[in-house]
Amino acid sequence: MIEMTVAGIALDATNRRTPIVLLKDGSGRRALPIWIGDNEARAILMALEHQRAARPMTHDLMANILAAWEMTLERIVIHSLQDNTYYAVLTIRQGDLCKEIDARPSDAIALALRCDSPIWVMEAVVADASIPVDRDADEQERIAFRQFLDSIRPQDFSQQGRGIEDSSAS
Description:
alpha+beta; Bifunctional nuclease domain; 5 helices; 8 strands; 34% strand; globular; disordered C terminus; Bi_nuclease_dom; BFN_sf; nuclease activity; BFN domain-containing protein
């Protein structure tokens, strides 16, 4: 299993702006995109931004129930991908008793963020569905942009020679 963290939420521009939760491995070299619903995206964003609704949302309620019954969410595991659908389980512990409960990955992630629990993904799922993160390309873009900024001179912003007339001179 590979421990992953939530890198953020994005919108799939090619698929009717469907939300995607993006998980990244510890090395930052692989990302796992999981398409989710709007409500789940909001729940995950609220947890990432440490926001609270005026009344408990579903995932807050679940976290409150776990705490009230002295249970802990030990981890979530995204264990398989079948027909473009991810499957996950919650591992919940109460004392010596430990149970695994089937869950949608989006709900499991939203709850894990609220319970500060680790997110694990089976290696086969990462191998099948992850995308490489080109950190070198990101660094090259940052270097090129920094070089561009460093090359700018004040006269580059001069209005002379650009066909812009100074209306105050009239």
